[in-house]
Specification:
Layout: E1 11-17, E2 20-28, E3 35-45, E4 64-69, H1 71-74, E5 80-83, E6 97-100, E7 107-112, E8 120-125, H2 128-132, E9 135-136, H3 142-152
Parallel strand pairs: 6-9
Antiparallel strand pairs: 1-2, 1-5, 2-3, 3-4, 6-7, 7-8
Length: about 160
């Protein structure tokens, strides 16, 4: 008998960082596999965020948007803190990513299916200017997500103590 996965699309979760926490949103869960698509937000909070701290989060304000592994959600190192209500998948779209050919240096815009399957649906050349506006393609492990957020969020201040 398989164990129920402890998360679903629309769930909010806390990402522990040095000196605080960020908030993550699960925007896509695949039908099979354990690679999720998430939005990640600051500011760095000094305590575990509460559901109310996520009020007003908007996809365009995310500090990172990545496909990521679910290991730390499964072992509760990234605790689920609630759910966006009402959850509307269309409000949290899949973004395009940039892939760089390691030999030629050519840049490609990569689009994935909206169903959470991590299936590429289109790869097309893009300019350097377009590439600079896109996130690097690739799946991030939980530790990589934490590193990205560590580098993107300033330390928590006293005004961000939300306990």
């Amino acid at each position: 008998m398989s164990k129920k996965i402890p998360y679903e699309e629309g769930d909010l979760f806390a990402v522990p960082l040095s000196g605080g926490y960020a908030i993550g949103v699960i925007a896509r869960c695949p039908p099979v596999g354990r690679i999720l698509y998430g939005y990640f937000f600051g500011p760095r909070r000094s305590g575990v965020p509460r559901v109310g701290d996520a009020h007003g989060l908007r996809p365009q304000d995310a500090v990172a948007v990545k496909p990521f592994g679910d290991l730390k959600l499964l072992n509760n190192a990234w605790p689920v803190i609630g759910k966006i209500e009402p959850w509307r998948r269309a409000d949290w779209p899949m973004r395009c990513f940039v892939r760089t050919d390691s030999i030629s240096g050519s840049k490609y815009k990569v689009e994935y299916a909206d169903d959470g399957s991590n299936r590429e649906i289109k790869v097309s050349p893009c300019t350097q200017i377009e590439a600079e506006c896109l996130t690097r393609d690739g799946i991030a492990g939980a530790g990589a997500v934490e590193s990205i957020l560590e580098g993107s969020l300033p330390p928590a201040s006293e005004t961000q103590v939300l306990q």
